[in-house]
Amino acid sequence: MDKRLLTIQDISCVGQCSLTVALPVISACGIETAVLPSSVLSNHTGGFSAWTFHDLTDDMEKILDRWLKEKISFDAFYTGYVSKSQIPYIIDIMNKAARPSAIRIVDPAMADNGKLYAGFADDFPMEMRKLCNKADIIMPNLTEAAFLLGEEYKGNNYDKNYIEATCKKLYKLGAKNVIITGVSFEKDKLGCAIFNGTTFDYYFTEKIDVAMHGTGDVYASCVAGAICRGFSIQNAAALAADFVVESIKATIDDKDHWYGVKFEKAIPYLIKRLAI
Length: 276
Fold this sequence. Notes:
- Helix content is 38%, strand content 25%.
- By secondary structure, it is an alpha/beta fold.
- The strands form two sheets. Strands 3-2-1-4-5-8-9-10-11 form a nine-stranded mixed β-sheet, with helices on both faces. Strands 6-7 form a two-stranded antiparallel ribbon.
């Protein structure tokens, strides 16, 4: 039986992030991708002057009930941008609609550059910890890691010892594997740290000195798709990092394209890598 993944996160109709990234990227990995929108936004909240927002929390329980009646189940779950009130429903969905040995992947999408995203209250990270506790893989960036642990954000002022100590603390939240993104020990390198409770692995790419919206969603979606394809966590994390770099390179010369990355241009690269 082919694998089926359910991704739960918002739809930002414009902006190349969240579900508009997850669905095509995971599908390009050859994985059947089901979606459960957590909310619908006219556009994402980074850089635009305003946005519309429609919460879909009230639909979650009814959708799960219909899935259970139809005997619909999933081999993997991948969560992104969700609200505090939705986390209990998401845990319930993961418990009731999971096939045997289902994989739970959590991107605790809530913060960057030392700040929570617009709309998240200060108590949100502690609720997100409950979702991380149920995960096989969590993928916070450095800001999200600090918020999850209730610690001060270090900015660029850290070393390898700090990263590994942070991985260990995140692992104690209950996740079986930790991937911290946005790690850099050299000015021209950027990558991730991976911890499985015993050993550490790192993967670095060239650092392109530009900030672009949606790269975290591109990364997490690629990891989820590659894991479902049978890649190891280390190889999935490496592929995702390379895919993000290719997506940035496809975008960087277009100064009008500030709201996201042209990941679509890099999908042929992704498919070629998946075939290796």
